[in-house]
Amino acid sequence: MSTERTFTAAMVQMRTGLWPEPSLEQGTKLIRDAAAAGADYVLTPEVSNMMQLNRKALFEHLQTGEDDRSLKAYRALAAELKIYLHIGSLALRYSPEKAVNRSFLIGPDCNLLASYDKIHMFDIDLPDGESYRESANYQPGETAVISDLPWGRIGLTICYDLRFPALYRALAESGASFITVPSAFTRKTGEAHWHVLLRARAIETGCFVFAAAQAGLHENKRETYGHSLIIDPWGEVIAEGGVEPGVFLAKIDPAKVETARRAIPSLQHGRRFSVVDAQTHPDHLHLIRGSA
Predict the structure, then answer these.
(1) What pLDDT does residue 3 have?
(2) Is 219 exposed, middle or buried (0-12, 13-18, 19+ CB in 10 A)?
């Protein structure tokens, strides 16, 4: 483990299958590759354990966090490799009727440093006919989470959270220098919005953004966008994946956070305001006319 101020971050890009066992095998190999390439911090995508759209099959394979074999294996792997291992999320049993989409930050001593339940549920109907109702199977989280790394504080989010900038501002205002967005973006929405939204979140917050992604055509016939990204606080892409599984690394200099925020201190300039309906509140025109 590096003791320098800078560190190496790795995005593990996966093509998770229908079942936990082969997905764990795939994830383990890629994480080992990342560590061998010098990674100090490794992030995997959303639902690293299984991408299962069939509700019956999903619930047959769900385990609780305490019993989940993938989580146990990843904790042991973090300790073996002496890395900070961030499992972007696992599908876990929450109740007899609901699962939870939960992210885990694991220390090099195998201890769990933080966990986060995805807050915003992906309930959408796309123009091409694709439809998703994440809330049918998953219980949303209610709390934003931030944790400490040796190089600064890290804020945890997952996939669809990306479209809600208030969450990212709150994490930055709470001290985050790095924000994670492990994802399984669809190919269609990824092509339209992935790069734009991730760069915007980095620019708005002055944070590094780490976004490990699912990629390609999965066994469940869902196609994900890939293009795992590492983005610096100025909004520049410093590492990017393609559409195949792999590992993508970048050297991270946390000093760039302060540099970006000093140049554009927008986190200090946020103001509370109200919205006025001009038709029902014509007195707003005093802003133009001047006070009487």
Answers:
(1) 42
(2) middle
